[in-house]
Amino acid sequence: MSESTSNPSDIPPDENGQEAEEPRAPQRVIGTPPPAQARTLLGEDEANGSAPVPRELPAEPDNPERAKRAERVVATCFIVSMLASIGFIAAYVGLQVHTVSSAANSNLALGVAMSIAFGGLGVGATIWVRQLMPQVELTEARKPMASSPQDRAEFAMTFTQGAEASGFVKRPLVRRTLIAATLPLAVAPLVLLRDMGPLPGTSLRHTVWRKGMRLLVYGPNTPLRPADFAIPGQMITVVPDGFQDNLDALAKATTIIIKFGPGELQPPTQMNWTVDNIVAYSKICTHVGCPVALYEHTTHHILCPCHQSTFDATRGAEVIFGPAARPLPQLPLGTDAQGYLIAESDYNVPVGPSFWERG
Amino acid sequence: MSWIKPRRRHPAAGYAVLLLGLVIIGVVYAAIAGGGSAASAAMPGGPSAHDIAVGQALFARTCSSCHGMNAQGTSAAPSLVGVGAAAVDFQVSTGRMPGKDFGAEMPRKPVTFTQQQIHQLAAYIASLGGGPTIPSAAQVSPAGADMALGQQLFITDCAQCHNFAGAGGALTYGKSAPALTQSTPTQIYEAMLTGPEAMPVFSDTTITPSQKRDIIAYVTTTRAEPNPGGFSLGRVGPVTEGLVTFLGGIAILVFAAMWLTMKRREA
Questions:
Q1: Which residue range is the domain that position B112 belongs to?
Q2: Which H helix or E strand runs over A86?
Q3: How far apart are CA A277 and CA A230, in angstroms?
Q4: Which candidate among A75, A300, B103, B168 keeps its CA 20 to 30 Å from the CA of A349?
Q5: What is the pTM for the complete model shown?
Q6: Which residue stretches of chain A have pLDDT < 50?
Q7: Is residue B255 part of a domain?
């Protein structure tokens, strides 16, 4: 019956909750349900389809004094939750959200009020369950899920009759045209993949830099003369003239120029691509394409903030540390008739991260 | 004034008076502005011979052991000839100089000298060979600056090291780009102008004085943004916030699960 407890032999009945003297086996893992010390929710008779039998649960807790205290704690939690909910509504109505900072304050108030509201409910409910409800564990035996043989036979017969009556088997024209209609529909989503854009072609190998294109300081977009950039230790980000607002182009074409003192630049830097010891390197890291612009003018290191690839700016930006596989590409520099810094050509190697066909 | 009387109703008289007024205002303004800029240069009243002498004595007492008696530099420290008053003001007013521990870099620490002593030191160093001067208060004022351009410049050329909110970041071999939370507008300006330690130089010909003011406006405004949650978490972005929320949330969930399944202790 319902009182038929199914205690394993090594766990004695634990009426008053005291820890048993002998160790329980297996040791209980935190977060898992306690071992069976439970009564069955459905008695054997009930599982077999007979009438339900009333179960006996302890009506009064063991310690009325303690239960009274717990009741007050639970009630306090629920009242706190109620006040927080009212506070939520008050904050929603009362706090205006016309500026960024007032919206942030409103979010803070709403979030705190709502977490206290739900938290109070949860804590109160947990204390209620743990302190006031009888600590009896019940197990419920599952009923078989399979349909009866009679139902299954009836379904099979209905299905076969329906298939016959619909003519799906008898009329091959209808059947085949239906299949023919669904096949292209299944292929259609594959065609939509084309919307992911054209194949990259050779675009990964080129940037928008061309011969004669001026270098503009990114931001104010002003051209530079070598005399404007004359103090060794200077560094600035430059972009190609005409593309300063084209972020797609700048994703590959952004460049840093660095000024060195006489004799600081060494091979393998391409010396005839520099102007007055000004050298230009791609700002796109050859590892995964982060913008490399942590330049230390004391060590001449260019650092990538993402994975700490370090490039030696005096030696053609060759890799001296980190996961990058190639030096930063160097942009050939020159000056135009007005004396402004220009590119002499595009980068002669692909900028940015490696790609499959790069070789 | 009798010579005016017959001419004052002349058709050109009004224009003549207007022109005269403009000329007077222009002359007076030029005199005031010229005097003002001279006064607000390296130090109030301009560096006198006395200031340079006091600065030299200060230098001999507190700086020369590393930088040499004539600021020519030694194996321990670089030459200061030509670094300019701005470099001295930056290094000394941030407390980096005089240096104490010779580590990877000189950290910011409490300032040793008074503002006047710093200006006297700067006057002495400037007298050795020019260099950038200390900017005036008007040159570094963020009032009316174009903060959007300042943000674009900061994000392009400063944020890689200093973080987009000026929270600072790590460099190589123990060096670091300092947080800009304590930097005064003057110090930010001087740092761009002189390129202290590993920082590159951003001279007035590449980033103009007005663009430097734009950058200062961005930095000072960004760091004054409120933290409605109460914690800035270093202002390094959504990753930290997500990490803190994730770890804190997981901890709360674990403790809640333990509490829920804890065996009740009957009294």
A1: 46-134
A2: helix A64-94
A3: 9
A4: A300
A5: 0.66
A6: 1-24, 46-47
A7: no
DSSP state of A214: B
Superfamily holding A205-358 = Rieske [2Fe-2S] iron-sulphur domain (2.102.10.10)
Q: Which residue of A lies nearest to B151 if distances are taken between CA atoms?
A: A219
Chain B residue whose CA is closest to A295: B200
Instruction: Please tell me whether residues B167 and B114 are part of one structural domain.
Output: no
What are A177-193's pLDDT values in tens digits? Answer: 999 999 999 998 888 88
Omega cis (within 30) before B178: no
The span from the CA of B57 to the CA of B15, in Å, is 59
Per residue in A223-266, pLDDT (tens digit) is: 999 988 888 889 999 999 999 899 989 999 999 999 998 888 88
Say if residues A13 and A7 touch (Cβ distance below 8 Å): yes
Is there a contact between A81 and A121 (Cβ–Cβ < 8 Å)? yes
Which residues 150-209 of B are in CB contact (within 8 Å) with A? 152-153, 156-157, 160-161, 169, 171-173, 175, 177, 195, 197-203, 205-208
B253 conformational bin, left if phi > 0, alpha if psi -120 to 50, beta if neither: alpha
Answer for the pair A132, A74: CB distance below 8 angstroms, yes or no: yes
Q: Is B32 helix (H, G, I), strand (E, B) or coil?
A: helix
CB A249 within 8 A of CB A213: no
